[in-house]
């Protein structure tokens, strides 16, 4: 096998890894769609409880996914990828995990403070700022991640195919 072929024989992620990746996107989209527009909505105790349970499950899912990915999977970046590019991909991947957890954690703190009766004031406003900033940062990181994925699709090096089931290219 010549060097070029070797580089292109990239193994895909396991089915479980793909289910984690795409399943998580569904859960995250649901979280964004049902987002709270106004803190007064938390007056509804059922909604407050639901938000808290959702945020806890969201964190649990992220932790299980992270452990599974770390223990069993490897990035599909070809071996000749530059150190800079490897570091950039890692930074964006870890960044997404950290910011996602930050969204849910700040949400939990909001819920806790609200439940304690702290419904307005500097403290809760600061936590809401933390919550909303985390959301903005994750949008930027997802944007960078998508750009990276499209770059690999154009480069046709197998990284796209290792995770994405559609628009697969023929690498002959
Ligand atoms: C349509 C949109 C998306 C495409 C095409 C896509 C594509 C990919 C590809 C090709 C990889 C493999 C990269 C490698 O081998 O190093 C990957 C990994 C990854 N993706 Fe995505 N992705 C998308 C959306 C997302 C979103 C929305 C998130 C976060 C919410 C995300 C989080 C991750 C993470 C954290 C990894 C690293 C592996 C892991 O730990 O799970 N992706 N993605
Ligand atoms: C993983 C779980 C969560 C996700 C994905 C999420 C998502 C979001 C999003 C996208 C926004 C809008 C941000 C913006 O407009 O910039 C938001 C705002 C907010 N969220 Fe969450 N959230 C989560 C958990 C929680 C929890 C547990 C609580 C409280 C019980 C909470 C309370 C709020 C509040 C009070 C706002 C601000 C509303 C306002 O602008 O006054 N969130 N959330």
Detailed description of the structure:
The protein is mostly helical and 172 residues long. It has one domain (13-32, 39-73, 82-163). Helix content is 73%, strand content 0%. Helix 2 (15-33) packs antiparallel against helix 3 and helix 4 (83-116) packs antiparallel against helix 5 (122-155). The longest helix has 34 residues, at 83-116. The model is unreliable at 1-10 (pLDDT under 50). The site of one protoporphyrin IX containing FE has 24 residues, from helix 2, helix 3, helix 4 and helix 5.
Q: From N to C, what is the helix and strand string?
A: HHHHHH
Q: Report helical residue fraction.
A: over 70%
Helix segment tally:
6
Q: By helix and strand content, what is the structural category?
A: mainly alpha
Low-confidence stretches: 1-10
Rg (C-alpha, Å): 19 Å
Bound molecules: protoporphyrin IX containing FE
Distance between the termini: 14 Å
Number of domains: 1
The total of beta strands comes to: 0
Largest sheet, in brief, is: none
What general outline do the C-alpha atoms trace?
elongated
Quick description:
The chain is an all-alpha fold.
Which descriptors would you attach to this protein?
172 residues, mainly alpha, 73% helix, disordered N terminus, binds protoporphyrin IX containing FE
Which helices and strands, and how do they pair?
Elements: H1 3-8, H2 15-33, H3 45-72, H4 83-116, H5 122-155, H6 159-163
Helix pairs in contact: 2-3, 3-4, 4-5
The chain binds protoporphyrin IX containing FE (HEM) (2 copies).
The site of one protoporphyrin IX containing FE has 20 residues, from helix 2, helix 4, helix 5 and helix 6.
